[in-house]
Structure formats: structure tokens, C-alpha cells
Specification:
- By secondary structure, the protein is an all-alpha fold.
- Helices cover 36% and strands 0% of the residues.
- The longest helix has 14 residues.
- The protein is elongated and about 45 Å long.
Length: 74
Amino acid sequence: MSEQHHNPKLDPQPGSNTEKDPDDWVSGDEPMTGAQGSYLTTLSEEAGEGPPPDNLTKAEASKRIDALKQKLGR
């Protein structure tokens, strides 16, 4: 029989999906979106860092965005 997986959509009191850890994203391994790349480039420039790699996944880009936002006090 197949292994059962937790389905957050079936939780009686689901948490906010806006707070989901990027490591848990279904599409986290896909290449970052154009919007993520653009925002990451802007934040990197504002933080005085070099350009971000262009081969990040969606999850990696999200984590870098969060780290840069925290560094910039946003």
C-alpha cells in the first residue's frame, strides 16, 4: 500500500499558505521566475552585493530575497 502523505488542505485549522517554508514548496525546484530574478537583482544592488546567480531555483531565490530584505531592514 502507498505511504500516506500529510495534506495541509485537509487540516481542520490550516495555517497561512503565505508563510510556507520554501523548502516545502511543490514547485521550489523549478527555476526562479522572472519577477524573482528582477527583484533579487534590485535588492542585491541596494545591499551593495554583486549580481545574483541566474540559475537559482524558486526556493533558493525566495530565501535570498528574504535574507536581503532583512539585511536592508524591510
